[in-house]
Each structure stands twice: as structure tokens, then as C-alpha cells.
């Protein structure tokens, strides 16, 4: 149907065998308008006959099935006619841009001053605010990348994250004993012997710590 080509490109068909309803979407922002529900007289007749058939059976049940099949047979034409009515109704709630042809919602996507959609004629104040926000974001990105946040970090002397071999607690770089269970760190064990009291390095045959006097 040619008149359908003069409206929004996207719509949802919510029709059933009982009636017809459509939701049309703005070509720009996808805001929607729901058309009024149009009852299918054949579909309703079929429902009434089916209801009667469930009570009386026989002829009414067969008539109900026949009515449903009839609705199926003429549903295409009835559906197209309902859609044409819905299109004429929906057009009242959208505006068509004479520059690009899009049908858009007047509340969000229409520039009333220019008489065009905002894709073709953006609102000056909205566009200025949007560009300022974009420029601010880009400048923040540039400045934060130029700033050195690691100048006071000694990467060469920073060890990686390690865990206690006994209880798996997190150990800080350079930590010699686990603060949770007292187990010597793996790196500390590999490096040599340490005082159990203060953690100072001691010789393998040393019986007392030179720093705290703790017996080993």
C-alpha cells in the first residue's frame, strides 16, 4: 500500500486474531506511539461461537472453527486496512522532515524553529552544550595522559604480590614473615636465616640475634 511508504520505517505489529494494534517508532530516537485498538469483528464472532461450542458442542463448535478459518482467510485484507487506519492516526503524532524524509517525534527530535528534524538542523544550544561536554572530556583525557603519576614509584625495587606458603595470606613486598601465622616468606627462606623475634638477618650458626638478643 503506497500510503504506508509515507510513514515511519519501523513499527511493532501487536495484532491478534481478536483485533489490531500497532506501535510506531520515531525514526531518530525510537520513541513510540501506540495506535488505538481496532476490534476484529470476524475474530470476535469466532470467539463467541467457540465459547458456545464449548458449552453445546456439535454445530456451534464446527461453526466456531469455520469462523476462525474465515478470519484467517480474510485476515490479510482486514489487517492491511487496520494498518492503513493506524498509519493515518499515527501521522498526527509525528512530523516529517522535508529535507531527509524521516518521521520524528516533535517532543525530542524536531527543531520547531527551523522546521526540520534535529538531524538536519540541530538545536544550536543543545549542540553547543554537547560539543563543550565532548571537548571537556577530550581535554581531561589529554591532560591526565600528560601527567606523570608514577614519578615517585621505584619500580626496580618493588616486588610482586606474594602469598604465605602456609596460610596464603597476602604478603607485602619485602615482608619476611607472615603477619597471620608467622611463617617465613619463601623469598626470605631462600635468602638465608632471620631472627624469629625481629626478622633481622643472622648467620646459620648464630645462636643469638645481634639486633634484639633473641635466642635462636
Give the strand content.
5-15%
Quote the average pLDDT: 78
Specify the overall morphology. elongated
Give the number of DSSP strands. Answer: 13
Model regions low in confidence, pLDDT < 50 over at least 5 residues? 44-49, 51-74
Oligomer: single chain
Number of helices: 4
For the largest beta-sheet, the strand count, sense and barrel status come to: 3 strands, antiparallel
The run of helices and strands is: EEEEEHHEEEEHEEHEE
What is the alpha-carbon Rg in Å?
A: 39 Å
How many individual domains? 2
The level of helicity is: 25-40%
Kindly report the spatial arrangement of strands forming the biggest sheet. 1-3-4
Secondary-structure class: alpha+beta
**Could you give the distance between the termini?**
98 Å
Protein name: Zinc ribbon domain-containing protein
Domain DZANK-type: 164-213
InterPro entries: DZR
Pfam families: DZR (PF12773)
Amino acid at each position: 500500500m503506497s500510503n504506508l511508504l509515507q510513514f515511519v520505517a519501523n513499527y511493532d505489529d501487536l495484532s491478534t486474531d481478536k483485533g489490531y494494534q500497532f506501535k510506531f517508532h520515531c525514526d531518530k530516537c525510537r520513541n513510540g506511539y501506540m495506535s488505538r485498538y481496532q476490534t476484529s469483528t470476524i475474530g470476535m464472532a469466532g470467539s463467541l461461537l467457540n465459547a458456545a461450542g464449548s458449552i453445546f458442542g456439535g454445530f456451534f463448535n464446527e461453526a466456531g472453527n469455520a469462523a476462525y478459518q474465515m478470519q484467517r482467510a480474510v485476515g490479510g485484507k482486514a489487517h492491511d486496512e487496520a494498518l492503513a487506519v493506524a498509519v493515518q492516526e499515527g501521522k498526527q503524532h509525528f512530523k516529517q522532515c522535508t529535507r531527509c524524509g524521516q518521521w520524528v517525534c516533535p517532543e525530542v527530535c524536531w527543531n520547531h524553529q527551523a522546521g526540520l528534524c534535529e538531524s538536519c538542523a540541530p538545536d544550536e544550544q543543545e549542540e553547543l552544550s554537547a560539543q563543550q561536554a565532548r571537548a571537556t572530556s577530550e581535554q581531561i583525557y589529554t591532560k591526565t595522559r600528560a601527567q606523570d603519576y608514577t614519578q615517585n614509584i621505584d619500580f626496580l625495587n618493588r616486588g610482586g604480590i606474594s602469598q604465605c606458603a602456609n596460610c596464603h595470606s597476602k604478603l607485602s613486598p619485602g615482608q619476611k614473615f607472615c603477619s597471620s601465622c608467622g611463617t617465613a616468606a619463601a623469598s626470605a627462606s631462600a635468602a638465608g636465616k632471620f631472627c624469629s623475634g625481629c626478622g633481622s638477618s643472622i648467620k646459620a650458626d648464630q645462636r643469638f640475634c645481634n639486633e634484639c638478643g633473641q635466642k635462636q
